[in-house]
Design goal:
The chain is of the alpha/beta class. It folds into 2 domains: 54-444, 3-Layer(aba) Sandwich (Rossmann fold), CATH 3.40.50.12780; 463-557, GMP Synthetase, Chain A, domain 3 (2-Layer Sandwich), CATH 3.30.300.30. Helices cover 28% and strands 25% of the residues. The protein is built from 17 helices and 29 strands. The strands form 6 sheets. Strands 1, 2, 14, 15, 16, 17, 18, 19, 20, 21, 23 and 24 form a 12-stranded mixed β-sheet that branches. It has a 5-stranded parallel β-sheet with strand order 6-5-7-8-9, with helices on both faces. Helix 3 crosses helix 4 (107-116), helix 4 packs across helix 8 (259-268) and helix 10 (303-311) packs across helix 12. The longest helix is centred in the N-terminal third of the chain and has 17 residues, at 72-88. The radius of gyration is 24 Å and the shape is globular. The protein starts with a helix and ends with a helix.
Length: 560
């Protein structure tokens, strides 16, 4: 299975092309990066693994709004206290705990406490509707929920006992709810930790997290990740940023309920002694102020924020001190040549590092780890350490070679156990050898760089031809009067589907539908032409920056 994949490297190393990482004898691409050393202690949970890593860090988390700080010793004593309280409440290995909260310095404390008991953490987006949250509760069957006072109404009707994440007065004015509040996180954290609490034996194979994938291509599914998956993710992040070399300060605006935020902040950085400055939600001014105030060195973000930094660079540099920043980390979608060059021009001392990962791979997959690697425009990067890939023809199932486009399959120590209570979805995504079908159409070039061409399931079928929306979107964004765009399949009884574009005009532009269609027609083959254009104020995207095509498809087809 996936965990033994490193063994195959030794048997085929003589036939691996050192430049691309491709092995002709089995059609597998091997990572060119130094493998991570996996923990040999099978009876270890991810919380113990993180807490036992040596580092010289002092401050773990800072709340950007209040300035409240948690030192590393504060974090670990809080984790012990909360775990003791949970144990006393009867929480045991295998129980699911729901966390409904915006970003907070207490988010990692809750996650680590729950996982230390062998219980399972499931997170949800605070912006989700009551119906969406109820659906996740019905699927994951949590026994307890943590949330902030303002979000309690979203759990009304669930009958879940609730722990309030509240400091000071636990109930805000006008607080009305029929939910069952059992205690506050503050009370739990003030508890004296007990060494005699019930401790179930937790192994690396046990489930640690149950995160729901964004569902951009269908119904949202619970992704089951093990303690081993998270430990491998932590080791990959620490080695990627060479964090052992010295203390760094990260600004956390990306959502912690999402694998991007959870991977980097609830685990990866704790293990290295870095400081994380937490913003409860993304707000451009607050984020930029925090960089100067806390002398931040790393800024993780999603592509739309990076584009805004480029477009408003002159005003930003006049108003904010970004002098300590040395890297921005971008994930969610590949950056265009124009954006990368524009950023390099406006912020010459700051490297762009890109990453590609899925909830199903615990956020790990591929990355660019230097400014030079990111200049390979359009790439998602090289395979992460200890990760293997195949490029598979979606029609024939044949494994392809260098520079050939097919579905990206990944195998490695961060690949999920499967989908929660969904054998059918698991079987169609994970094969018996541990290969995960990503659903992304990709190719790997001569130097081992992965390029994402499109989502396999989002290809537009025009008269049998396959049209990748991402290609047309990239071309639309080169138009001088377009600030953002998305392309979807529009149903048609004669041709099957044709490309339709949703376009956000730049301020002051009156560019017409025909002008846009003519612009694209000059650049693509006839079957790829855009045949319908609608203008919108903004393109809907998920927290990691991916276009929510299903929302636009629904909008377009609702008028039929």
């Amino acid at each position: 299975m996936a965990q033994n994949s490193s063994n195959s490297t030794t048997t085929t190393s003589t036939t691996i092309d050192p430049r691309s990482g491709f092995c002709k004898s089995n059609s597998v691409f091997y990572s060119k990066r130094k493998p991570i050393a996996l923990s040999s202690n099978h009876s270890q949970d991810v919380t113990t693994f993180i807490s036992s890593r040596a580092h010289n860090g002092k401050t773990a988390f800072i709340d950007a709004a209040t300035g409240r700080q948690l030192s590393f010793s504060d974090v670990w004593s809080a984790v012990d206290s909360v775990a003791t309280s949970l144990s006393d409440m009867g929480i045991r290995k295998g129980h699911v705990i729901l966390l409904l909260s915006p970003n907070s310095i207490f988010f990692p404390v809750i996650c680590l406490s729950v996982m230390s008991l062998g219980a399972i953490i499931t997170t949800t987006n605070p912006l989700n509707t009551n119906r969406e949250i109820a659906k996740q509760i019905a699927d994951s069957k949590p026994v307890l929920a943590f949330t902030i006072p303002q979000l309690v109404p979203k759990l009304d009707g669930s009958n879940l006992p609730i722990v309030l994440i509240a400091h000071g007065h636990p109930h805000p004015p006008n607080f009305t709810s029929n939910s069952k509040i059992v205690t506050t996180l503050e009370t739990m954290m003030n508890r004296e930790p007990s060494q005699s609490r019930v401790k179930d034996r937790v192994t690396q194979d046990d489930t640690a997290t149950l995160l729901y994938s964004s569902g951009t291509t269908g119904a949202s599914k619970g992704v089951v990740s093990s303690h081993r998956n998270l430990m491998a993710m932590v080791q990959t992040i620490v080695s990627r940023f060479r964090l052992e070399a010295g203390e760094q300060t990260f600004i956390c605006t990306v959502p912690m309920f999402h694998i991007y935020g959870l991977a980097a902040f609830a685990a990866g950085l704790l293990a290295s002694g870095s400081t994380v400055v937490v913003l409860s939600k993304f707000e451009m001014d607050e984020m930029l102020s925090a960089i100067g105030k806390y002398r931040a060195t790393y800024l993780p973000l999603v592509p739309p924020i990076l584009v805004a930094l480029v477009n408003h660079a002159d005003g930003i540099k006049r108003k904010y001190d970004l002098g300590t920043l040395n890297s921005v980390l971008s994930g969610g979608a590949p950056l265009s040549k124009e954006v990368i060059e524009g950023f390099a021009d406006k912020y010459p001392g700051v490297a762009i590092l890109q990453g590609y990962g899925l909830t199903e791979t615990t956020g790990i997959g591929a990355s660019t780890d230097s400014a030079e690697e990111s200049q390979r425009y359009g790439t998602a990067g090289m395979l992460s350490p200890s990760m293997e890939a195949k490029i598979v023809d979606p029609e024939s199932g044949e494994a392809l070679a260098v520079n050939q486009t097919g579905e990206l399959w990944l195998r490695g120590p961060t690949v999920m156990k499967g989908y929660f209570s969904n054998e059918e979805a698991t079987a169609s995504t994970l094969d018996s050898d541990g290969w995960l079908r990503t659903g992304d159409l990709c190719y790997i070039d001569d130097d081992g760089f992965i390029f994402v061409v499109d989502r396999l399931k989002e290809l537009i079928k025009y008269k049998g031809y396959q049209v990748p929306p991402a290609e047309l979107e990239a071309l639309l964004l080169t138009h001088p009067e377009i600030s953002d765009a998305a392309v979807i399949p529009f149903p048609d009884k004669d041709v099957g589907q044709y490309p339709m574009a949703y376009v956000v005009r730049k301020t002051g532009s009156n560019v017409s539908e025909n002008a846009i269609m003519d612009f694209i027609a000059k650049l693509v083959a006839p079957y790829k032409r855009i045949r319908r254009v609608a203008f919108v104020a903004s393109i809907p995207k998920n927290p990691s920056g991916k276009i929510l095509r299903k929302d636009l498809i629904k909008l377009a087809t609702s008028k039929l």
